[in-house]
Automatic annotation (TrEMBL):
GO terms, biological process: ribosomal large subunit assembly; rRNA processing
Protein's UniProt name: Brix-domain-containing protein
Keyword Nucleus: yes
Principal location: nucleus
Its job: Required for biogenesis of the 60S ribosomal subunit.
Disordered as annotated region, ranges: 1-24, 267-307
GO MF terms, alphabetically ordered: rRNA binding
Family: Belongs to the BRX1 family.
InterPro entries: Brix, BRX1
PROSITE patterns documented for this protein: BRIX
Ranges of compositional bias, category Basic and acidic residues: 270-279, 290-307
Classification via Pfam families: Brix (PF04427)
Organism of provenance: Acaromyces ingoldii
Amino acid sequence: MASLFNKASHSSNAKGKRKASDAEIASENVAASDVVAPRRNKQRVLLLPSRGVTMRMRHLVNDIEALLPHAKKDSKLDSKSNLHILNELAELNNCNNTLYFEARKAEDLYLWASKTPNGPSAKMHVQNIHTMDELKMTGNCLKGSRPLLSFDKAFDQRPHWALLKEMFTQMFGVPRTARRIKPFIDHVVSFSIVDNKIWFRNYQIIEKDPGVVTDKKAKKDEEPTLVEIGPRMVLTPIRIFEGSFGGATVYENPEYISPNAVRHNVRRKKGDEYRDRTAAQHNLKAKRQKLQDERKVDELSRDKVFA
């Protein structure tokens, strides 16, 4: 009986799970390697100004920070020549993008947009600054909500515009996994190209009873509308560098004129006007003196008669 029991137990074990062959194990490993993990957007932006910013510039930086919940704001940077320090600051703050607002002479503002630490980077001149407090627009959006990014079709026509579009997409596109975001999309950040300059605008998306309209005519009347929130600014590209805050020049704007040159031309024009006015006064005085010297003496004048 014992021998029969052992024989039956061996036969039952033989009928169990068989060992996987080496070919099956290899095929399973290949199938597991083919499964691609979903890509995670881990963009973080370091936002900081330089020393010497004015009140309007500081408010603009605060408005940009409010639009970017994935941004990390740092204290003002003292040095304006050693910009490579920003790469180390971005690494310390675990950021792979940097927006650096550099103030010059308390009236000129420049924006450095860089992909740290390897680049590329772009330097732009910021003009026509209008902050949220200054505009007092009626638009409003939830703080921390994710924006839609709208780019002009001209960004796809030139290589340098396409590069700037990709940089702005990674910097202003808020990741879905950011910690401080709200799960809503209620505003649009617009980048438009006019006169070879980038116009930055921020609009609120207003919908009236979404999902309720069924009639086509009523649906046309209930289309979403846009109301501007702010801030506003115009960016003039100056140069695009291969590295982060330096390196080889990839693109240089031939139409860009520095504010110092513009102010110099204005002062020179005023100097030319003053010199022309002074020369005209001198010529008038010389003409009067010449006419007075060439005037003939009249014999019947009062001085001759009653001399």
